[in-house]
């Protein structure tokens, strides 16, 4: 006896919808190079200014500055003035960006937010990034030279101990700064003037998704074990800089994977990411810094700035 064909009532079947696959967009290398040559500085927001700090090397480092705002109420303004006279005003904030970024990455949201809270804000562009000068030679700097550049800026341009904030590779620079600062201030043979001459004392430090003191190797291996496909994408995008030639990869790396192509292309930071690749000549390999483990309190997740 032949088996009867199986039929399902049509009202039980869910409606079918077909979504066409997203077309992969590739950025032609010629167009990419042309865009980088025709780059324009990041358009500043209201209340922001672009400054240039001259380093001992003679090169200029870009600084985007936004002054802290006082409250509009008379009582709050009077209280702020009284605190300023007593030396209790909020410490300045100094922001250090990560790989393929520059001072502009802080200018859109971070600087306005903290400025409204009363903090003077300085966002720096490392040499070879943003509108900072590009040194001659194979690399624009090392971890040590970037740290020294930031110390020079703080020493000459910031009137009181700031809070140093670093994201990703910038967080590694902040840790290097703290390590050198602690070495200076822990030396009993160094006077207070000599201590501030190199790496001035900080009021605090903040690490935002920072590269750890041991480098990225442990993170990379964990990522490969638990999310191999995502790990391969990140490696291709950042280590091999493939995002510079692939709009989908650039979108997924720096924006949202669901963000439409035109929104990415029209976003002011899109070309700045590409410019960061073109100008990125400094060594940002996996840097092992075992000396940073000597920071007081580092194993407990905090660092003491007491001297």
UniProtKB/TrEMBL annotation:
GO MF, one example: carboxylic ester hydrolase activity
GO annotation, biological process: lipid homeostasis; phosphatidic acid biosynthetic process
Cross-referenced Pfam families: Abhydrolase_6 (PF12697)
InterPro entries per the UniProt record, alphabetical: AB_hydrolase_1 (IPR000073), AB_hydrolase_fold (IPR029058)
SUPFAM superfamilies, per database record: alpha/beta-Hydrolases (SSF53474)
Domain of life: Eukaryota
AB hydrolase-1 domain sequence ranges: 93-256
Record protein name field: Uncharacterized protein LOC105041230 isoform X3
Name of the gene: LOC105041230
